[in-house]
Amino acid sequence: MVPPKIFLRKALIRLNALFGRGLVMSMGAVLLIGVALSLAAYLFLNTAAPRTLTIASGPPGSSFQRSAERYQKILEREGVTLKIIPSDGSADNLARLADAGLDVDLGFVLGGEAKDAKYENLVSLGSVAFQPLMVFYSGAPKTLLSEFKGLRVNIGPAGSGTHRLALALLKANGIVPGDGTVLDQTDLDDPTQALHEGRIDAAFLMSESTATKVTRSLIRDSGVRLLNFVQADAYVRRIGTLNKLQLPRGSLDLGKDIPAEDIVLVGPTVQLVARESLHPALSDLILEAAREVHGKAGLYRKRGEFPAAHEGEFRTSPDATRYYSSGKSFLYRSFPFWLASLIARVLAVLVPLVLLVVPALKIAPAIYRWRIESRIYRWYRVLIELEREAFKPAVGSERRAQLLRELDEIEAAVNRIVVPAAFGDIFYGLRGHIGFVRRSLLASEADPAQLQGIS
Q1: Structural domain of residue 184, as residue ranges?
Q2: How many structural domains compose the chain?
């Protein structure tokens, strides 16, 4: 068996013999540049999707936390690890996403959370659910939010979407801090007990920051009332991010008829907000998980209603827009996630290589041929000028001797040209023409009239 080094050396010798050293070196340089570009694409273009993702969810037991955990299990099937970071709720999630120093890729954010602020580095993957606001209170029945003026009202912790929305609704009803109403921002562990003990008169709750079992327990409690938003249509028109929702009679317990009547609620949508840098394949994977988690019918949604494209405070991601119109990208639609990721990496190497090398390999021989031929043909110009000089009338013997010396110099220079075998025809043609001009000049030494005849 021939050793690899000897085999490579023999191959190079054969290539040099056929095409010349210059062409082989030129093609080798093209290949090296192509490989360098491919490696750059592989290392820096992030073609393959990451295998780890981080989501900001919500407090333990909240709907945000439970949705994130379901996403985690679905993504795990595809070999992607979803890290869940607990938070205080929607406002906290948005703050974490906006902070470039934190390792957070996406999070649940309520509609209206951004207000008038611009987040250029954040995009929406769409809305995934409605988030109903529930106002529980004790005491005599109430119809309007304005009736809570002067009472002790818990509006949730400052980092929650509940807090922001409660302030907006109370303000719309003329209730503001300092007007005698006590706006409690305590994160209550047990709102039911706080209401029964009289520590608060009312509590604004949303499952983005409150465990669902807490709100359901409050609905079942005969000593606590749930406010029916009789002015829901007005709220929806006044605050564009709100939706009118309905909790149907008996929807929580048909046998016990809980609730005992249809209750109208208001609430924003929940958006999946991500950083603009989120990989397209992961965007598709997350939306597939969202469809599995939120696509079924529920208390406040129809089957297939979510996820849905939503152009609101955040611009919709181009990848999400493409997903809603045509589904997952071809690679990740046709192959398992791990295999599609591998193919994407291979393509990152091959595509730049093919785009550069194929045209270069087609052009390189033509350029090399032109270079070799130009080295030969430029001596033809010198030879033609010398021949014309020799053919001029009244050329003396001294001048002819000088022209012969110049012709010797031309021949010596031509003999130093190294050309591959493929160009032997034009090389030897040049040498033959040099010999022809020499014979003509030598013949003119013996018979000047012969030179005149040649001219």
Answers
A1: 132-267
A2: 3
